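Moderator note: this is an archived Q&A kept for reference. The question asked for a predicted structure of one protein chain; the sequence and the answer are reproduced below.
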Amino acid sequence: MTSERVLATRPAPMREFVAPFAVPSRLTGHTYQVRFSHLWNAISTRHADAVDCKFFVDGRGVIVGLAHPAFVQFRERTGRELTDREASHIAAAYLRERLEEEDEHALYELPAEEVLRLAETLGLG
């Protein structure tokens, strides 16, 4: 196996799952600068049955919590697991929707239905 092949198949660092993006507010025209940081199981930090995705919005930390039951329902519907990368894209899509409306919070908690809606919207399954 060549070194080029090893590099091509090596997973990207978590911070690269979602490219930095800008979100213009529909209300004021302010443009938010958003950068994905990482994700983790929320049971360990806030005792929630969720996967938390951390973003920096204009430099401030924001958490988007995805209800864990959505991951189980996704597997039952599609026959495959929802990947960490896909989960981060779902969280980014939700954060984009909220910021477009200037609905700013330090923590967003998505119910399973909302996670599955966004998975469908993104064409994940």
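Archived answer notes: Confidence is low (pLDDT under 50) at residues 1-9.
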